[in-house]
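cache lookup: miss for this entity combination. No prior model stored, computing from scratch. Input as submitted by user K.M.:
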Amino acid sequence: MADKRLAAEQSFMAALKETIRTNMRQYTMIAALLIIWVIFSSLTNGLFLTPRNLSNLFLQMVTIGIMTSGMMMVMVTCHIDLSVGSLCGTLGACVAFLMVNMGLSPFITIPITLILGLCVGAWHGYWVAFRGVPGFIVTLASMIAFKGVTLLVTNGKTIGEFPPFFKSIGQGYIPRLFSSEGSPHDLTIIIFAVLLLAFLVSNMRRRSKRIKNGFVVLPMSLEILKMVIVSAGIIAVCLILASWRGIPYAMLVLGCTVSIFIVITTRTPFGRHVYAVGGNLEAAKLSGIDTKKTLFVVFLLQGLLVSIAATVFTARLNAATVSAGTLFELETIAGCIIGGTSTTGGIGTVFGAIIGALVMASLDNGMSLMNVPIMWQYMVKGAILLFAVWVDLAIKQK
Amino acid sequence: MALDDVDFTVKEGEIHALVGENGAGKSTLMKVLSGVYPYGTYSGDIVINGNVVKLGSIKDGEKASVVVIYQELSLIKYMNVCENIFLGNEIVERGLINWDESFIRANKALKDVNLNINPSTLTINLGVGTQQLVEIAKALTKEARLLVLDEPTSSLTETEIENLFQILRQLKAKGMTCIFISHKLKEVFEIADRVTVLCDGRTRGTFEASELTEGKLISLMVGRELTQRFPTASHTAGETALEISNWTVINPEVPDKKALDDIHFFSRQGEILGIAGLMGAGRTELFLSILGAWGRKVSGEVKLFGKPVNTRSPSTVIGEGIAYLTEDRKAKGLVLIDNVRDNMALASLSKRLNNGLIDQDEELREVEKTIEDLSIKTPTVEQLVKNLSGGNQQKTVLGKWLMTEPKVLILDEPTRGIDVGAKYEIYTIMHRLVERGISIIMISSELPEILGMSDRIVVIREGKVAGELLRDEATQEKIIAYATGGM
């Protein structure tokens, strides 16, 4: 016990070093994101960092962002899901078909879409977990097959114009309470204020509970520094959104799914099982984990997330097209990898994957602002992916 | 030091058996002979036909006409027999492989080992016995003069063993020299002309097989000095905890042989049951199959405190209160890329749920308590287990199982690869657990450990219970006699 007490009393600098060392990955990722933002800002004469553009950027990354949480879990189990783009297109087509061709209301269409997503997830999970077919093959098959399903559902045409309510899921912003157009968005500020307060209170409560239980905690000074930095981040995002049009509904969806998946991966036995299965399948099995069930549920959840992403994406486009979703699988996988998900399984976080998705979206957005021709955009994105993984490996080997 | 002052001579054209118990140094010696441990890593000379040879690699070994056939067959499953025979030794003409010539020579080599198969048969379609003969054929195409066979009979059936021995005698008649490594005494007496006994890395002498008796051979094999110290404790055995009866299991890869054959034994609360036997006797497989993680069960029943246990999968068995610490902690016990906390909590996550979520404070408290209890040396619970020493890794796995609050704790080679101090600590912990009423089953290949720790000893030989000994009557000789079938 004596050395623990010592640890609790260690100096501010030592604790700071220790914290930075253990969270190195996450900090470098956030730093990389900020550097990219600064570079684009200077290349676009500040256009990149305007509230309008950043709000737009957040909207653009929602679809990929939702899918990265699931992809991250799939990759942690040593599999991969190549079908997300294709499936996203198919489910979008289903949404459009149900609403436009069959005239169903969004309140019936959305649940049906989510159920369809779960069914596809169960289908993948069945083959991977209980039939032992590698995820790569199962989802490659789906990737091809769902292209056909999309063509079948859309009949090769664009289906479009959705009811305003549905459209707002992808394009709309939460309403204002009292403030008028042009002044800061009041409901956004209220929501963020509640979030901020909740963060501060829960953080302090947790701290005092851990002290009571005799655990090692960060020195108070460092704890305050941490709270200041996180608060600053929350306030910054709040100001960006509030000075434009407020929180987009789509971001609300992303925020909820990400929070839920952070809890699932860090706080539930299932989440821990996912990491154990990917880290050492044999040890997981001999620790009494039902590895097949774990794999099945991972793919099931992935199906659900793709259906949510497809709903938001289709609403944003306000139409379902034959080519919708093309290359989403690669964007999603790239986001996960840039966000620190190991390609050999066992390592990855939802938070990192979201930052990775944000990096990919920032590259898209920034280069579009600069009017970089699309061919160069692809090449730059490819190069950055390779570079990011190399940097990661180089750091790890040190 | 794995080998110390080894000295023996093999005559041309004889079958020379090399015997010794687990850890006597047989495998190391063989690796020196074949060039796996190159010249310079050992001191001493290897003399072949009067010349001192310096083997720098396996290739050098083969040039000196020494070919080793390992216990785990090294044929590539999805290649055909001919490709396997010439793998790494291809017959090349102008940069291309001459397949016609390869097939002709492969056919001839196969005839020499009485195999009547087409060289284009895929290896995966052959039984283990046939694969063994293909390995010998492969050695023949390399023009081997000295064939070293490491435990060649361990996964063969009776008829396959007969067949193998007949072929070895034929090869001997043609002038081939064989070193036959085994710990099955019956086979040694059947096939060997002379026998060299290894013990504790030293040669205890070479004898004409005809001059030896089983009893004399056993007394030569044991005699390892019991220098290691064990903590003393007296246990009082209580209720029967785990009871195994009629346990018969088949290895799906060797379907015509019972891997475990009608096994009966029981363990009691408050005692350590030692499971002794030679490598490959089926001890690990026995417990993996009880866990539902190995083989195809033919018959048998597992009871825990009189209640039948469903052995369908590890999760159901572990849920009943049976914990199994694997022999290979890195490959099967730990998630090396995870930290101490995640590893220790892994098997008991569902014990600490609060509204479906893991109670992290409760988890941390239990992990820290266990770390203290087992005095695991780690800077923080966030330390990655791959950075811990072997002893602390082992204690981490042990901690994982103690957190499940097991009634029966099965320890498979609990002190393998850890230093003396950590060993002693683990022994002390074992005694403490037994006093708490846990029933411990310890599988060990170290005879001193079995004798020093067990209250009762069950010896397994070739998938069967060969005998049971009480602490007071157990001696190295008796265990070895049961384990080798020398009784």
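stored under new cache key. The CA atoms of residues 16 and 22 of chain A lie 10 Å apart.
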